[in-house]
Design brief:
This protein is mainly beta and 123 residues long. 0% of the residues lie in helices and 55% in strands.
């Protein structure tokens, strides 16, 4: 069949060009902490590692958008995680944001941990 590899799978599509906007390590302090905030019309992608979480740890990751340039942050998703994670890397996707997107992390139980992260935008 046209367009299929010899194993019957569709041919590999290379990912669109991505630009790194921020990477680092966040040390939890018991408050809701900003991991990244960005402005500009784009599709945004991010990864946060929860690999250091142990029994007794609880974390909330929240996603926010601005609807207008002068608008306030509006949360549209909050996800909670507890204890060690079988698949510890979160893949976050913001389809399209023009006036800003923001990601926060709040470790609200357990001994404070560090969380590696990296965020990209599609060019």
């Amino acid at each position: 069949m046209p367009g299929l590899s010899s194993h019957g799978a569709p041919p590999m599509v290379l990912p669109a060009a991505l630009e790194k906007i921020k990477e680092g390590v966040l040390t939890a302090d018991g408050t809701e902490q900003e991991v990244v905030a960005a402005v500009g019309l784009a599709e945004y992608y991010g990864l946060i590692s929860l690999d250091k979480m142990t029994i007794g740890d609880k974390v909330a990751v929240s996603l926010y958008l601005r609807m207008t340039a002068e608008g306030e942050w509006k949360r549209y998703r909050r996800m909670e995680y507890a204890g060690p994670q079988e698949d510890p890397v979160l893949h976050l996707l913001v389809k399209v944001a023009q006036h800003g997107f923001r990601v926060t992390l709040h470790q609200f139980e357990g001994v404070p941990k560090t969380f590696e992260y990296c965020f990209y935008k599609k060019l």
